[in-house]
Design goal:
With 131 residues, this protein is mostly helical. Helices cover 73% and strands 0% of the residues. The longest helix is centred in the last third of the chain and has 39 residues, at 81-119.
Amino acid sequence: MNQVRQVAVECVGRAVMFGWLAIGCVMVGFSFAPVSSFRSGAVLALVMSLILLWRAITAASRNPRHSEVWLYLDEANRPAEADARFVFTTIMREVYGHYAQVTLWVAVGLFAASALLQLAGLTPYSPPTVG
């Protein structure tokens, strides 16, 4: 079961890392306006946290054999057919929930940084009006 958990942490962690890469690119795109940069990062982090939470809640409805974790496990480390769904549901719910919680805390930190920068006198980006 530890092998399944380790592979699940690696697979979900890699997906979360790619999500953070995309969020970082958006934040760099707004680097000319730090308040907007941190605020957009926070909003996107909240979206990622909600997606991870949804994946945790719906983990029981997924077939373990169709998961990336199953592909990375050796035949010897795969749980027995009778236990596979319960083991995978438990582990994936736990792993997705952990990453959702960490992502939520990072989003709170990004919102706090945005608020502090705005209190310091920086203004968020607002597109120019035409006309």
